[in-house]
Structures are given as structure tokens and as C-alpha cells.
Design goal:
The complex is a heterodimer of chains A (about 270) and B (about 1100). By secondary structure, chain A is an alpha/beta fold. Chain A is built from eleven helices and seven strands. Chain A has one domain: Alpha/Beta hydrolase fold, catalytic domain (Rossmann fold), CATH 3.40.50.1820. In chain A, helix 2 links the parallel strand 2 and strand 3. Chain B has 48 helices and 17 strands. Chain B is flat, with a radius of gyration of 44 Å. Classes of the chains: A alpha/beta (about 270), B alpha/beta (about 1100). Chain B: This is Clp R domain-containing protein.
Chain lengths: ~270, ~1100
């Protein structure tokens, strides 16, 4: 049973080392997004790679619209994977949605995680009274309807925006993975993500965290990193990468890798 | 030979055989001679429960109505069948070879996947396609299952064409066949998301699906995720009172209680069945706000009563819902009422632990923490369990957006890239290389064909018309000149042809395989080249071509492109302005080459031939002349040749073969100024070809070493030992290539330069490139440490560097960057600086590269490095290679400081010296460590001078008298350097954890390289002495002995750096004589210099040199104050 989950979500364990490291991709990408980071860590870690169920590389039949309405089922998936692999402690690197998933997973199983590294993380994307998440509800609705009417056009417009830095290969790569997602799933996941609000539960995190954020990120304003730092329960550090975009692992792997390494060493 | 129907049938399962019978029937009806795949398709489509038709239904594009499309399909099948010639009716038209082949193919694929075969059996029985064959027959003779048969038939090009005409893609159909319709909704989309059709995927789709379904039990409709979680908590034995945490917690709580009261029994099970929800939210509000706890008392009594009842009946329970926890910690004067409530609830909980559930929500953990502070035991007493809630259900109310999106999705379903892309970085290694090899092979074949073709067409007349002057020239020198011309013509024709071919294949390769090519040259296609293999030239032609081939094969056996590329690079300089490489252009080129050559034969010692207006041209002529009989200036030739290698090469390569044959004749006249052990011919040849490149590389021999050494020493005169060992290594390498003919021992082409002298290493690398690949440009130079370095602005070294890491490498890892450069220059010296600073990715890549001869980038694509010479440098010396270098000697100008040199403008300040005795007796020129503001006048600067006197470096002729210079003092002068060091220090501590592994890696790498070469530090102090001497003599000459000149340390460093960098040895002396001398003269004229005057040569900080002196990186003029 667990085996099939591993298969369905394309779980791979690579590298040699005594510590486990989970690399979890964000929405709109799949595990291939880590390929530039991966070789740098394979010698020192056993790296667990998997695809979120919403990723384009996963059979869309597995995406159950009635189940994946919140982030918790994703957390279930993650914990099930770790269980199936017999992992009892690991470091976790999560990007965007997966950062949220990692936070939730660590709340549920604090002993399982030795460290959370959150790249481009945000507990809440929508603005609130005294919280700046970067998006207004109205904007989001517009985005959703744009996705709905013409997904392709939306992808083509959104990808460069999200990638931020002027790296055509990264834009291409992100567009590819984004486009691989079935539009309805993509939209559904986006709704789920924008609907999620982790602000209240951040205090439950006891695992040490490292928030990695780029200098300019369309999805996550700089204040969010600070918010995370103050509100996350565990010992938390913030690293600002001197690059732009939401996907530093795609655009600036050389910049990200040392930061990751440092964070993992602590 | 067609196969009989009965013979074919025995390979098929019953079902498949039935289909075949149908096909035979179709063929019979149409009275065709054979049963082909088309008949089979026609039959398959008409079968009652046609798998093929069903698959088509699922794959068809939505652009057309299905009925129409099927009609189109039938029509196109029919038309294709009509086209087949009919013959007289045969009883059972035998199976055509193509159909039989399809059967065989399907058999093979089925045999490859026995498991999926069984599965398939299983599966098809589910689909009511039960067949009786079963597994038992599979052993005896593998009977082809219908599905496999269809799949194979679809591979038939005729069939796929027919389907294509009807708007179907056979690959889509195959996919649909392999992936049976599991879910009604989305199977249509599956093709976009599944791996491309390979039969082995069958297992995935069948097995994975089943298992996965099991994994998610109980997905009742309408129960949202939050409710499910809440009920999960409540079903537990302890910690069963959920406290929902999160911004949306309250909402979720409401939703849950609502569905509870509505009695959605699906949510609750076990103990919870039949429980009632009682809310005390309102009552709490009342207590807190109004202090009225009467109602609360009542309510709690009610609760207690219900619980009592439940206990009695043995079922049900109470879910006591207190709403927002915030209500309970309201910090008011009335807060007192809360604690009794909390205690009361705790009491209730204790009594009716099995029947009572408390429930609540809280905005954030912080509030809950506060609450806990107030009531430390509450978590245990209330049996609370925190449940993070991250989203409310509200926005998912209503239908999922599925349906509308599906529509928008379909039209571009075909645009989805296949996921094979995904896997390619992992599994698809080597992809680009074999393809290019393919191209290379084809290219080679064609080249051979051209060469063998011999005298195909003779357009010699035209050729000679184009070269009238050449003929005239050739006539001057009767026998020899003609010979030269002949071979030249033949050789150049060949090379032109080869070039054309090469271009063609490069194009093809680029187009097909996206291989980056090196060339920007727009070469003519073959047709443009006049073919001049006249019969009278054929003998020479043969000879040259064979020689050429042998070179090609023996030296670079596994890399035929090497030659072409060299050809290319060699031709590059030819395409000077007007020559866009049409045949005419090339002829002109020949022309000039011949010009060069013939005079060299005729007027052997005349250096200044009048028509050599252009310096480059004359150079090329010089170097071109060498092999013939122009003996004396061999060394100068070489020198010039190396400097202007890019231009001189031109003549050399085209003539190299020429030389070869002439050498025999001229060997007598060739000088014997070289060692006796070197074969004169080959040596001489090598000598010339040290600038001429690979075409003549075969000839490198014993003399090779010396020639390389000479070429290198020319460039880097100060590194004798290193130069010796490099040339030794390289000549060994070449010798090896030659003698082993293609056996490439791994790591052979790797060298490691250890120790200081960065510029020297770089110069040697570029000199090697010149020697080995014919151009100094054939260097891929990357500094592996550059990523953690901030660029020195205005550094004197700046222009030498490649563009900084940041610009080039955005979005790339270092190894990708290297790979890219390697791809650009497949024949080059790869010069990787500071390999000890390499990040892990690069380490990994290098590791593989040295072992396999292929450099992988981060995506797993590999670039062959067999044609390269890789030089890794490291300034640090690892434990394993400790070679004692006397570091205890204090150096006044360490390399580190020199590397920080800036490219500032210089200035001379005039001041007067004090009558200080200690100062008056110095030699007149000295270097001051004082960093002076360029605006300062010496009068008010005196004090400072005295203060810093102690740290002044006094430059005297002896120079060896070392003043211990405090490091900190120097640091003050070089803030950038210091910052840099700090940076490095930080980086070191950062990478501490990996430094050890890195070191061991380095050692391992170095143990595999062919040779380690230790460099000595550049003798900056010596040079400094020389410069100071030079300047002082200059000074004495121009302004007189009594005037003192002070050289700012920064200027000194700048001069040293420039001297280090300059190509010519005397460049700095030249500069001192010309630029500084002129300035000093000007100063002498402008100011009335007294014996007490002090001139100061200082740098104008922030003012970058605008105009550089020729040949050296120093300002062309010096400002006067």
C-alpha cells in the first residue's frame, strides 16, 4: 500500500549519507526543479524527492478533488511517504506550498523533523488587517478567472513573473512544469493555497526553521519572512538571497546551495 | 514471401485470430492478393466490440464531431484499400510480410513483458474480452494478444498515415490502448500526463491505481477535510477534545457543529454516534460581558442531565462547544467568572470522560498559550488536543470548477510536453553526444568520399585564371615554386571541400541535435568551390590528402572533428573584411599566401620585402618562410609568431603539408643550432608548427619538447622549472597519442599547476593553447573561486578576466558554466583556476571528467574532453604534495598585493624635501608606502612623511636588505584586499564542514592528473628593484641627480602588475623610458627643481586610466601637478 503511494508520487531516494533530507517542490513545479541543487547534496545526504499529488508528473487521476481541499491531505501524503520509507528523522526543504506543508507536518510530528528550511514561504498570501500577504482577494479572483479562461496564456504570463530574474531557461522550465499540471487541478490547488492560513498555527512549530527568501519575490513580500521569524515557534533564522524571483532553486542554485548547506549544518 | 493464414494464426490468441480472419475476409472480398495491415485495421474497426474503435473514441480530438471523424477514418481506410492492386480471387489471401512482421513484433514485445502479459490477460477479462488462452499456453508458443497485435499494427507506417489522414495520431491511440479507461472523467487527459507509451507502463496504470484507491478509504461525499480531522481527533481515546487552532478555526468549528446538528451521520462513528451538540458560546459571552452566570449554571445542569442519560442508555454523548477560546481569556474585571467555569468543565470532564467532548476554536496559538498560563492544567483537565486548521471550506462550496475548465483544457492538450522530458536529465545521458558522433561519422564518410573521388571535374583553367599573379610568381621559381603551388592548390582545395562538408554537417548537426558549434564562419557550400583537381596535380593531391588523413587519424583518432574545427579556426582569420568565404575570396587568400611563400623561396634573406605593408602580413610571411630555407631568424619568427599567432597561423596551416614535403629538400639548409638529438627535419617542422597548429602535429617528436619549451619560455620567462615540466608533459602526451594511436589513458590530458604566480599560469595556458591548438584564443579560462568573490572594480587585471561570474552565470551552476564553455570550444586548453575552491557540483563533474573523459553538466549531459588539455590550478598546496617552497623569506611585494593592483591614472607631485639627514642620502628614488591624497602638497605633508617613515620601504640597488613590513600597514593601503581576505575567511569558516572532504577530493583529483607542476612565486621584488633602478637612472638623466623621486606604493604595485602582465619583457623599461621619462622632462621644464625638491609619483585614486600605453597596462601619460 505504502509502496504504491511511493510509486504514485514518484518518490525517489538518492544520494548517500546518514541523514535524510526531503526536498519538496512548490506548486507549479515538480521534483525536477531540484535537479540543480540535487547533485550538491547527494554525497552528504540521502535525499528524498517526491511529487506533490497536484504536480504535472503525477497521474491526474490520483488527484481527488474531494480530498485535497486543504493542505492537510498533502501533509498526510508527506508523512505517509516518510513512514513508508522508514524515516524517523529528517531535514526538510520545502518551497512555497511545500513550505506550508512542512510547517504543518512538523506540527503534527515534531520529532520527525530536525530542521525546516522554507524557501519562498508564506503563511498567508492574502492581505489582512495587520498582515501584508501580498495579494488582495479581488486580485486573486481575477487571477483565478484568468486561469480558467485561458490557462496557456496565464502560464505564459505568470511564469516569467514568478521566476522574476531574467533567466530564460528557468522561465522555460517553470512554464513547462506549470503547464504540465492539468488546469483544473492547478486552479484547485491555487484556491486551496490561497485559502490556507497558517498564521494561527505557526506558534505550534517547535522545529528550528530557516526561512530563505529572495530579495524580490512577486508572491511573497519581504515582510512575510520577518513575520515568519517572529511567529514561528522554533528557533528561526531568515536568509535573504541576493537574487530575484520566487524560484531561487531554479534561477540561482549556486547562490542557494551554500545557504542551504549552512542552514543544514546548524 | 507471404505467410499462409494458418501459419500466422498459430501465433495468435483466439481473439486475435478472429480479428485476423476478419482481415483475411476483407482482403478476400476485395480480391486482394495479400492480407495487409490495412486490411487488419479495417477488420479491427468493424469488429463488434472494437478495442481499436474504442481507443480512437477516447483519443480523438474534440475539434470534430466523433461521427464525422470515424466516417473520415473509414473513408481513408477504404481509399487506401482501393489503391491496392486487386488480383484474381484467392481463397485465403496470405498474410503480407508487413503484417507478419507486425505479428512478430507484437510477439516480441509481449515476451519482453511477461508480467504485463498476464496482467493484460487479467485486465482484458475484466473488460469482457475474456479469452480462454490463459497463462498455460504462454509457455508453449507465445500467442499474441489482440491488444499487442493492434499496437504493432499501428506502428506500420501505412497504417499511421491512414490514421493521420483522418486526424488521429497513432501514438495517441496506442496510448489509449495501453491505458484502459479507468476513470470516466479524465482518461482523455492521461496522455498528457503519463509517460509516453511503453508497454511496461501497463503495470503502473493497473496496479498503482488499485493500490492507491485502497489508500484512501472512506471518502464520503460532502465531508470536508476539516470535519474529517476533527472527528478523527474526537474518535481518539485521550486528547479527544479538539481545540481548533488557526485563523479559520472558528469557521471550521461552525461548519462542523452545523453538520453535526444536521445529523450527517457520516462524520461520526463509534462513541460519537448519537451525540448531541450543546453550545455554551452565548452563555460564556454573557458571563464575560455581563457577569451573569445564571444561564450558564442552567446550561451546565442541562448538559449534566444529558450526560447522565447517555451514561444510562449506553450510547451517545455530548459535544460541548464553547466557541472561541478568546472569550474565556477576556482580560476584564469580570475575569473571575471564568475560572469557576473552567473548573466546572474540568469536573464534568472527569466524571463523564467517555461521553463528553469539549470543543472550541482559537485564532492563534499565542492566545491559547495565554489561556494555558492562566489555567496550567487545562490541557489535561479538558483533555484538549490542538488541531491546526489552515483553511475554511467556504470557498469550495458549490461545484468544483472542473467542468468548465475541462473545456478550456482540451484544445491545447496536444501541446503538453511529454513527461519524457522530465526523465531525460536522469536517464537520457549522453544524448547529444552519440547523435553528434553520428553526424561526424557521416561527415567523415563524405570527406573520405571527396578525397577518394580524385580528379572528378577539372576546372583548373578557371582556377588559374583567378590566380594570374600566382602563376607569374610560380614561374619565377621554376621547379620548386610550381611544386609548392601545386600542393598548395590541391591541399587548399581539399580543405575547402572539407570545410564545405564540415559546414554542412555542422549545420545538420546543429539543426537536428542543437549542438553548439564553434563556428561563426559562413562557409560556402561545396558547389561554390571551384574544383581544381586537375590531372597534373593529382599526384600531389593524393600525397597531401593521404598525409592529411594520417595526421587526422593518428593524432586525434577518436575525434575527427578536431581537424575540421581547426581548419575552421584556421580559416577564420582569412575571412577578413571583404572575404565572405566565397570561392573568390579564398582564392584571394591563396593569392596572398602564395605571395608570401614565393618570395620566401626566392629572396631568402630579405626581411623587408616592400609589399609587406601590413605588419601582420609580414609576420605571417616570416613564419611561413621558416620551413623553407629561411634559416637565421627562426627564433624571432617564433616569437613574432606567438605574439601574432592568430594571424600567422593562416599561412602556416595551409602550408604545413607543403612544408612537410619540402623539408626533406631543405633539411640541409635548415639550421642546426638546436640539439643534436633532435631530428632536424621534424624539429624544424615542429618549430614552425608551434604556431601552425594541429595539421602538422603528427610531426611532433623528440624536438617537440624543446619547441614547446621555447614557446612557453618565450611567454613566461621566469618559470623555468615549470615551463620545463609543462613542455615535458605535453610532449609526452603527444608522443603517447602518436604511439598508442587512439588509446586515451584517462587523465592524461590533465595538468595541475600548483603554487603562486597566477599570471604565469595563465600565460602558460594560453601559450599551450597556441602550441597545441593554434591560437591563444583556444583557452577556456574560468576561475572556480570567482563565485564567492566580489569583483575588484578597476582592477588592472580586469580586462583580462572573462566577464564576471555574476553576469555569465545567472541561473547556472558553475559546472553548467564550464560545460557551456567547453561546448563552445571543443578544442582548447581548459584552464580552471583555484580548483581547490570548487563547489561540490564542480568537484563531482571534474571527478567524472577525469575518470571518464567526459565532463557532465548538472543535467547529466556530457561533453567529451578528450580533445582538450585540462589545466587545474591551485594556489594552495595540499598535504599530499607538500613541496618545500621557501615561504619563510619575507617578501616585500607578495602576489596577493599585486593582484589588488588598480588601474589608476598616475600623477607627479612636486614638493621640497626637508634637510633631514637620513633622507638626503638616499639613492634618489624610493618607494613609499604612504598613501597620499593626490591633492596634497608636500609642504604640509612633511609631518606625515616623517611619521610614516618607519614603514617606508626603502628601495636600494641591493634590494635584498629586507625591512620587515608590518602587514597591517600594508592593509591600510589596500582596503579592498583586506575586505577580500575577510570575505575569504568567512567563506572558509562557512565551508569548514566540507573543507576536509574537499581537501581529500583535491588530493584524489591531483593523484589522477598526468602531471603536477609547481610554480615559483614571481619575483616581484626583483622586478621592483629593476624598475626602481630604471626609474632612478631615468630620473638622473632627465632631472638631475639631486632631485629625489618618491614612488607611491600603489604606483609601484601597479607597475609591478603591469610588468607581470605585459607580453614583452622590456615593456616596463620602455614605459619608464618613454612615458615616465617624458613626464620627468616636462616636470623639469615646468618647475624649477632644486636639489631639495622631491618628486612624488602617486596614483590618482578613482581616476581610471583612459589611455593606455602600448604593450603595457599603464597610463600613456602621467599627469603633472
Amino acid at each position: 500500500m505504502g509502496y504504491n503511494l511511493l510509486e504514485a508520487l514518484n518518490v525517489r531516494v538518492v544520494g548517500s549519507g546518514d541523514r535524510y533530507l526531503v526536498l519538496a517542490h512548490g506548486s507549479g513545479t515538480d521534483q525536477s526543479v531540484w535537479q540543480r541543487i540535487l547533485p550538491l547534496f547527494t554525497p552528504s545526504f540521502r535525499i528524498i524527492l517526491y511529487d506533490l499529488v497536484c504536480a504535472g508528473s503525477v497521474n491526474p487521476d490520483y488527484f481527488d478533488f474531494s480530498r485535497y481541499t486543504t493542505l492537510d491531505p498533502y501533509v498526510d501524503d508527506l508523512l505517509n511517504i516518510l513512514k513508508a520509507l522508514g524515516v524517523d528523522r529528517c531535514a526538510y526543504v520545502g518551497h512555497s506550498v511545500s513550505a506550508m506543508i512542512g510547517i504543518l507536518a512538523s506540527i503534527r510530528r515534531p520529532q520527525l523533523f530536525s530542521k525546516l528550511i522554507l524557501i519562498g514561504a508564506s503563511p498567508r498570501f492574502l492581505n489582512d488587517k495587520d498582515y501584508h500577504g501580498g495579494f488582495e482577494q479581488g486580485e486573486i479572483e481575477k487571477v483565478f478567472s484568468a486561469m480558467e479562461t485561458n490557462y496557456e496564456a496565464w502560464v505564459n504570463g505568470f511564469a516569467p513573473l514568478a521566476v522574476g530574474a531574467d533567466v530564460p531557461t528557468a522561465v522555460r522550465e517553470f512554464s513547462r512544469t506549470l503547464f504540465n499540471m492539468r488546469p483544473d487541478i492547478s486552479l484547485f490547488v491555487s484556491r486551496t493555497v490561497f485559502n490556507s492560513d497558517l498564521r494561527g498555527v505557526l506558534g505550534l512549530v517547535s522545529v528550528p526553521c530557516c526561512v530563505i527568501q529572495t530579495a524580490r519575490d512577486v508572491s511573497v513580500p519581504a515582510s512575510v519572512a520577518e513575520y515568519l521569524r517572529t511567529h514561528l515557534g522554533g528557533r528561526t533564522t531568515v536568509e535573504i538571497l541576493r537574487t530575484e524571483g520566487h524560484l531561487p532553486h531554479l534561477t540561482a542554485p549556486a547562490l542557494l546551495a551554500p545557504v542551504l548547506r549552512r542552514a543544514l549544518a546548524r | 514471401m507471404p505467410t499462409s493464414v494458418t501459419a500466422a494464426r498459430q501465433f495468435l490468441t483466439e481473439e486475435a485470430a478472429r480479428a485476423l480472419d476478419e482481415a483475411v475476409a476483407v482482403a478476400r472480398r476485395r480480391s486482394h492478393a495479400q492480407t495487409t495491415s490495412l486490411h487488419a485495421v479495417s477488420a479491427l474497426l468493424s469488429l463488434p466490440s472494437s478495442t481499436l474503435r474504442e481507443a480512437c473514441t477516447r483519443t480523438r480530438s474534440s475539434a470534430y464531431p466523433s461521427r464525422l471523424q470515424f466516417r473520415a477514418l473509414e473513408l481513408s481506410v477504404g481509399v487506401s484499400l482501393d489503391r491496392l492492386p486487386s488480383s484474381k480471387s484467392v481463397e485465403d489471401p496470405p498474410i503480407s510480410n508487413s503484417l507478419m512482421a507486425a505479428i512478430k513484433r507484437s510477439q516480441a514485445s509481449q515476451r519482453r513483458h511477461p508480467e504485463s502479459y498476464h496482467l493484460q490477460q487479467l485486465h482484458s477479462s475484466n473488460n469482457n474480452n475474456a479469452n480462454a488462452t490463459g497463462c498455460s499456453q504462454a509457455q508453449a508458443i507465445l500467442k499474441v494478444e489482440l491488444k499487442y497485435l493492434i499496437l504493432s499494427i499501428l506502428d506500420d507506417p501505412i497504417v499511421s498515415r491512414v490514421f493521420g489522414e483522418a486526424g488521429f495520431r497513432s501514438c495517441d491511440i496506442k496510448l489509449a490502448l495501453v491505458r484502459p479507461p479507468v476513470a470516466q472523467v479524465s482518461s482523455r487527459f492521461s496522455r498528457a500526463h503519463c509517460p509516453p507509451i511503453f508497454l511496461c507502463n501497463l503495470t503502473d496504470s493497473v496496479f498503482g491505481r488499485v493500490g492507491y484507491n485502497l489508500l484512501f478509504p472512506g471518502q464520503e461525499d460532502g465531508v470536508d477535510e476539516n470535519c474529517k480531522r476533527i472527528s478523527e481527533v474526537m474518535a481518539k481515546k485521550s486528547g479527544k477534545s479538539p481545540l481548533l487552532v488557526g485563523v479559520c478555526a472558528l469557521e471550521a468549528l461552525r461548519a462542523f457543529t452545523e453538520s453535526l446538528t444536521k445529523g450527517k451521520s457520516g462524520i461520526l462513528d463509534g462513541d460519537l454516534v448519537g451525540s448531541v451538540v450543546i453550545s455554551i458560546e452565548k452563555e460564556i459571552n454573557e458571563i464575560v460581558n455581563e457577569g451573569n452566570d445564571e444561564k450558564m449554571g442552567l446550561k451546565l445542569k442541562e448538559v449534566e442531565a444529558t450526560l447522565e442519560k447517555c451514561n444510562g442508555s449506553g450510547g451517545g454523548g455530548v459535544v460541548l462547544h464553547f466557541g472561541d477560546l478568546k472569550g474565556l481569556i477576556f482580560d476584564g474585571a469580570l475575569g473571575d467568572f471564568v475560572s469557576p467555569l473552567v473548573l466546572r468543565l474540568a469536573g464534568l470532564m472527569e466524571v463523564y470522560r467517555r461521553r463528553l467532548w469539549l470543543m472550541g476554536a482559537v485564532d492563534s496559538v499565542e492566545i491559547y498559550r495565554k489561556f494555558c498560563d492562566k489555567f496550567p492544567n487545562v490541557e489535561k483537565d479538558w483533555d484538549l488536543q490542538l488541531l491546526p486548521i489552515t483553511s475554511s471550506k467556504s470557498s469550495f462550496d458549490g461545484a468544483y470548477p472542473k467542468s468548465s475548465l475541462m473545456r478550456s483544457f482540451v484544445p491545447f492538450g496536444g501541446l503538453f510536453p511529454t513527461p519524457s522530458d522530465l526523465r531525460s536529465p536522469l536517464s537520457g545521458r549522453n544524448q547529444s553526444i552519440p547523435r553528434c558522433n553520428l553526424c561526424n561519422e557521416k561527415y567523415e564518410q563524405e570527406v573520405d568520399a571527396v578525397k577518394k573521388a580524385g580528379s572528378t571535374v577539372s576546372v583548373a583553367d578557371q582556377y588559374s585564371e583567378n590566380l594570374p599573379s600566382w602563376l607569374r610568381m610560380a614561374a619565377v621559381d621554376t621547379s620548386r615554386g610550381e611544386d609548392v603551388a601545386k600542393t598548395k592548390a590541391g591541399e587548399s582545395m581539399l580543405s575547402a571541400k572539407v570545410l564545405g562538408l564540415q559546414k554542412k554537417w555542422n549545420d545538420i548537426c546543429q539543426r537536428l541535435h542543437c549542438t553548439p558549434t564553434v563556428t561563426k564562419l559562413d562557409n560556402p557550400s561545396m558547389s561554390q568551390v571551384p574544383i581544381v583537381k586537375g590531372p597534373q596535380f593529382s599526384r600531389d593531391q593524393n600525397r597531401t590528402s593521404s598525409g592529411d588523413l594520417s595526421i587526422n587519424e593518428s593524432l586525434f583518432p577518436n575525434q575527427s572533428p578536431s581537424r575540421q574545427i581547426h581548419m575552421q579556426t584556421n580559416f577564420l582569420p582569412k575571412s577578413t573584411p571583404s572575404i565572405s568565404c566565397t570561392s573568390e575570396g579564398r582564392n584571394m587568400n591563396f593569392h596572398s599566401v602564395l605571395h608570401v611563400d614565393v618570395p620566401s623561396v626566392t629572396q631568402q634573406t630579405d626581411k623587408d620585402v616592400p609589399w609587406f605593408h601590413h605588419p601582420r602580413q609580414s609576420l605571417s610571411s616570416c613564419s611561413g618562410r621558416t620551413p623553407s630555407s629561411f634559416v637565421p631568424p627562426v627564433t624571432t619568427d617564433l616569437k613574432l609568431g606567438t605574439i601574432y599567432a592568430s594571424t600567422s597561423r593562416e599561412s602556416n596551416t595551409t602550408k604545413s603539408l607543403n612544408h612537410q614535403e619540402h623539408l626533406q629538400r631543405f633539411s640541409g639548409s635548415v639550421s642546426t643550432e638546436f640539439d643534436a638529438n633532435s631530428e632536424t627535419t621534424s624539429y624544424q617542422f615542429a618549430q614552425s608548427s608551434s604556431c601552425s597548429g594541429p595539421a602538422s602535429a603528427e610531426q611532433f617528436d623528440l624536438g617537440d619538447y624543446k619547441s614547446i619549451r621555447k614557446a612557453l619560455a618565450e611567454k613566461v620567462g621566469w618559470q623555468d622549472e615549470a615551463v620545463n615540466s609543462v613542455s615535458q608533459a605535453v610532449s609526452q602526451l603527444r608522443h603517447k597519442y602518436r604511439s598508442f594511436r587512439g588509446i586515451n589513458c584517462k587523465g592524461d590530458n590533465w595538468l595541475t599547476f600548483l603554487g603562486p604566480d597566477r599570471v604565469g599560469k595563465k600565460r602558460i595556458a594560453s601559450a599551450l593553447a597556441d602550441v597545441l591548438f593554434g591560437s591563444q584564443e583556444c583557452v577556456v579560462s574560468l576561475d572556480l573561486s570567482s563565485q564567492d568573490k566580489l569583483g575588484h572594480s578597476n582592477s588592472i587585471f580586469e580586462c583580462k578576466e572573462l566577464s564576471s561570474y555574476d553576469e555569465m552565470s545567472r541561473g547556472k551552476t558553475m559546472s553548467d558554466l564550464i560545460a557551456e564553455e567547453l561546448r563552445k570550444k571543443p578544442h582548447s586548453v581548459v584552464f580552471l583556476e583555484n580548483v581547490d575552491k570548487a563547489d561540490y557540483g564542480v568537484q563531482h563533474s571534474l571527478d567524472l571528467a577525469i575518470r571518464t573523459g567526459k565532463f557532465p553538466d548538472s543535467r547529466g549531459r556530457e561533453i567529451s574532453i578528450n580533445n582538450m588539455v585540462l589545466i587545474t590550478t591551485s594556489s594552495s598546496i595540499t598535504k599530499g604534495n607538500v613541496k618545500v617552497i621557501c615561504e619563510n623569506k619575507v617578501v616585500k611585494f607578495p602576489e596577493k598585493i599585486i593582484l589588488g593592483a588598480k588601474n589608476w591614472q598616475m600623477q607627479i607631485l612636486v614638493g621640497s624635501a626637508s634637510d633631514d639627514a637620513s633622507k638626503s642620502n638616499y639613492m634618489g628614488v624610493r618607494v613609499a608606502t604612504v598613501k597620499e591624497a593626490s591633492t596634497s602638497t608636500s609642504a604640509n605633508k612633511r609631518k606625515t612623511m616623517d611619521v610614516v617613515e618607519s614603514s617606508e620601504l626603502e628601495k636600494t640597488d641591493t634590494g635584498e636588505r629586507e625591512h620587515k613590513v608590518p602587514r597591517s600597514c600594508l592593509d591600510l593601503n589596500f582596503p579592498v584586499e583586506e575586505a577580500d581576505e575577510e570575505d575569504m575567511g568567512l567563506g572558509h569558516s562557512k565551508s569548514e564542514s566540507m573543507s576536509e572532504s574537499s581537501e581529500s577530493w583535491l588530493e584524489e583529483l591531483f593523484s589522477q592528473v598526468h602531471k603536477k607542476i609547481h610554480f615559483k612565486p614571481f619575483d616581484f621584488d626583483g622586478v621592483a628593484d629593476k624598475i626602481v633602478k630604471e626609474i632612478s637612472s631615468q630620473c638622473q638623466r632627465t632631472v638631475g641627480t639631486e632631485v629625489a623621486l618618491e614612488i607611491g606604493e600603489q604606483v609601484m604595485v601597479q607597475m609591478l602588475a603591469a610588468a607581470w602582465l605585459s607580453d614583452k619583457r622590456e615593456a616596463i623599461e620602455d614605459w619608464v623610458a618613454k612615458v615616465l621619462g617624458r613626464s620627468l622632462v616636462e616636470v623639469g621644464q615646468k618647475y624649477n627643481l632644486s636639489p631639495r625638491s622631491v618628486l612624488k609619483l602617486v596614483a590618482c585614486e578613482g581616476d581610471v586610466v583612459k589611455e593606455q600605453a602600448p604593450g603595457i597596462r599603464l597610463p600613456a601619460k602621467i599627469n603633472l601637478n
